[in-house]
Amino acid sequence: MEIDEIDAKILRELTKDARTRLKDIAKICGLSSNAIFKRVKRLKVMGVITGTILFSDLALSGYEYTATVGINLKGGQEREIVQSIRKIGNLVALSHTVGEYDICAFIVAKSMAQIDYLKQIIRRQPGIERIAVSLWITPHFSLENIDMQTKRAE
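^ thats the sequence. predicted structure below, dont judge the formating
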């Protein structure tokens, strides 16, 4: 199935605020609330909408430090290493990567000492060859500039 411009508008509005009322989205799209409800339901069935996520200012919760940890692995233990890293506290995201690192972890912390502690925990995992930490000074997350439409088959 394809995402058209109306679906893209719906996704943009829900990205700004996942609690936006359907009738408000309907006004923006020029459709009825019922039509928007059906489209949202279809987007959920398609797997485009999988839930709602709250992006908050983590600094207000005391998590003033964010970092990316690039991880190089020794061969053959990837599954076990990923499973053990997923259990580490303060881990926001973990992804296999192509490039300089095999895996990249995104972590948050309340202090530099906590970043160092998390770094040591990751480094001590069996099968880790090397890690590199990059601190994020002022992270800004925004999906406003992302084109929500799928590519059309040519």
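The chain has a mean pLDDT of 85.
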